[in-house]
Design a protein that fits this description.
With about 220 residues, the protein is α/β, with parallel strands linked by helices. It is built from 9 helices and 5 strands.
Amino acid sequence: MKQKKIGFIGLGLIGGSIAKAIRRYYPDYEIVAFDKNRETLALATQESIINVACTSIDDNFRGCNYIFLCAPVAFNTAYLKQMMPYLHDDMILTDVGSVKTPIHDEIIRLGLNAYFVLTPSAKVAKKKVDAYASFVESLRALPIVLDYHEHDIVTGTISHLPHIIAASLVNFVRDTDTKDELMKTLAAGGFKDITRIASSSPTMWEHICAQNQSN
């Protein structure tokens, strides 16, 4: 593939991982990134993961072949409007949020023809879906195409509900442990396996649960 320009809105765990994969497999690609955390941008620049660090969504995103929305789900929807001046017909706009219905609703409201790697909108041409799927495969990932409503039902069951259960269990142990903290002392691998995901960002999970509460 010839050199392309990739934009990132947010360089958290998922956005940063995708950026690193692109840099690894396509070292000549230009990567432009915006993040509210300037330390994150500075580190990504220092490690040569990105070429341009942006403190706002500006003209640096013009001419991108792909733009990844990788902020918390509620912010991704808000960023859509800011991205509109930089969208063009040959570009693919995608998000990595864990809830799809709100952002698709906003895409429809704004009249945007954009899609996520797993959940193409009804108006997206098959050749665009195929092109993006090929790009995803080139990063050694496995693209799976789903209806966005189906996506939120599935992730609500296998991802979002398990997080709520894990967080509830951690809080229950905190609130009911013995004075000498025997629960924490005796907790073995099984407990740690169940509660591992409870250590994820509470802000991110607040957004996910609020956005996908119907499922």
